[in-house]
Predict the 3D structure of the following.
Amino acid sequence: MNPQKLWKLLLLLLLAFSLSLAACDGGTEDAQLETPEEAVDEEVAEEEEAAEEEEVAEEASPESDEAVTDAQAKPSGSLLIWVQQANQDVFEQTVLDDFLAEYPDIQIEWVNYPPDEVASQLQVAIQGGAGAPDLAVTENRFIPRLIELGGLVDLTEQLQPYVDDLNPAAVEFGSKEGRHYSFPWDVGPVVTFYRRDLFEAAGLPTEPAEVEELISTWDKFLDACIQIKEETNANCLALNKANNYGDPYFNMLWQQGLDWVNEEGQIVVDSPQHVATLEKLGEFWEAEVVSDQLEWTDGWYAELNAGLDDASVSPVATVTIGAWMGNFLKTWIAPDQGGNWAVVHMPAWEEGGARSANQGGSAFIIPELSSNKEAAWAFAEFMVGREDNHLEIFQYSDYFPALESTYDAPLFSEPDPYFGDQVTRQVFVDAAQNIPNVGIYVPENSTITAALQTAVQKVGLGEASAEAALQEAAETARLETGLD
């Protein structure tokens, strides 16, 4: 109690004492006066009430109001996003308007590059210290290099509420030493699409459950390919020689868990296991059951869409590739073959082995140079961190979600008329959840990829054995990366 209040209390006590003396003379009105004890109690109550009013006033002060306003403030300002045109279209056709309604003070500016160009341009910006976007979307395989440059925002804390619901492989693509630098959007679980009509014409089973067993290993798959070729004269798959991108080989490595760079930082692409895998791929050339069409060319599209009686183009029976291919087949590559295509797990290296790999997938990344990190995170979180939004994007695009908590949605149990009412997404879910963890998406990925593509091409053209080609590829990669 402060001195001023103490003096006030003493005066009240003296007044009460004097009144009590006056009351000794009698008088009915004086009988209503307070006792000293009552006066003290009243004074204490008044002080407590004043203290409470002071506390309320402090809570309602302008400084407190400002704190509440700041806590509720939303990101605003310009948001520059680098992304391929197809991805921008996906956002615009699905939930972008909802985002702008929730964040009306954010103004988005788009710059379109292909995914590899997003990564290469961002690398230039990071190394130059200027010219980066606020947010970018690129393929998972490019992200480790950007992390290695030290140019990405550490999103570990922001991502924490979502990590347990995300595909572990997708999280790993954007991580280093336990820290997370990307918000995964989609993954590319590898599956095998096959033509029911060609399998039937070759006298083979056609239903997915039977085909799963028929091609459960690469050896059994080759046997089926030989029968298809003998009975229909159709090729089993496309496997270009001179310009091969290497994806079939990479998928076979991935499912075995065969690294390109081991934990000691050594390039191991010339190991006996890698050699055996390339030799197995070479058996398909030797058996002459493949076409020489290069992926993503008109000739490749034509054979995927060709009918059994097409006189101008021979159809192809299978394609082993990322699950995203399902949308491509039914919308623009093979729209004429609805009901003929189906999907199963890719063949395993050996019985009981993994029947999955990863091909593609993408993620959101925020450069350290971003001038609006808060708006960048808000955009990424809105698009792929919220289940309803992620599902709407998936339903439109077929970019398979990295957010595994979406897999229980009814959408994943719906039959697909294009695939003969097969519930294809259940195959994709199983493949996505069983992607082996492997050291292929490493910072040196692009350099090693180029060396291995050359090796695959030399084997296809008959210019070198698998062992010699991979030894040369390893030496080239070591020289160009500086790794052992």
In short: DSSP finds 21 helices and eleven strands in the chain.
